[in-house]
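Checklist before submission:
- one chain only
- standard amino acids only
- sequence pasted in full

Submission:
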Amino acid sequence: MQNTPSNDTSTVESWDTYWRGASSTDAFSSDGVNHPAIPAFWQYFFGLCNQDESVLKLIDIACGNGSVIECASQFFNHDKIQLSALDISAAAIKNLKQKFPFVKGIVSDANNIALDTESYDIVTSQFGVEYAGLSAILETSRLVTKGGKLGLLFHIRDGSIHQECEQNKNAINSVINSRFVPLALRLFKNGFAAMQGADRSAYESAARELAPAIKELESIMTEYGLHIAGDTVSRLYNDVDKIHKKIQHYNPDDVFAWLESMENELPDYLERMKSMVKSSLTIVNFETIKDELEKEGFVLEIADKFFAPNQKSPLAWVLIANKQ
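Returned file contents:
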């Protein structure tokens, strides 16, 4: 998933860690949300928006790395749109501002947005605001001006992205439980020490202890495929093997720092996958959202499952609504 949840402290911390380390320039490259049908949807949505105003105001809630902002900046002339982006992660906003310096960045919980009611012509969220629950969705909708438009993509239970996140979660959980990373760290520490003349018995013991974890990673890749969790498992497996085979060519401090960072990052990745899976909405959840928005004076233009071409499983729930 791509945008940041706004309620659970540990989850927010994991996303903040992720955005601090994010380096990709592709706004659609993170956590599986990279299907071309998604930016195509936003181009369609923006085409529905009223462009009679001299300057439109748009805000994207739980903006993450700015995929919706990128689409909006490509669709609208810059002198015809004022773009704002809100996320609970300060790191996400910092990254977004580096890519899109013309955007107003706002660090805020989606459940408590300190902005005026009916202050934006277009309000959007892509796989983000649902993390914080129904109250955050209603808080988001509060920002839509009369005659304005609300455009939302939600995670859908049992959809293709949900299934991918569920598999990523299970795979990374198995990697953590195997203790592959701390055991590999022990192996290399003893291996480098043996190269300096220390007793090899500690190294050989560490190698024996690592062997079952190696088998576990092989089983994970067999079950879920080599590209599971964005190639994280296969890269970890291959890089440890490569370093081990040519250990004399590597700097010990670099190897230790890499493995220690992985030991910290894997739980954060797991937490993000858990939050994505948890945020996925059932049909009952979606019907509740529709009902509440209608009570708030919205007319639903589109409210249904969103399918990519030639796919049997939906990518998302899609909701487009007009404020009366």
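Reviewer check: The chain is about 50% helix and 15% strand.
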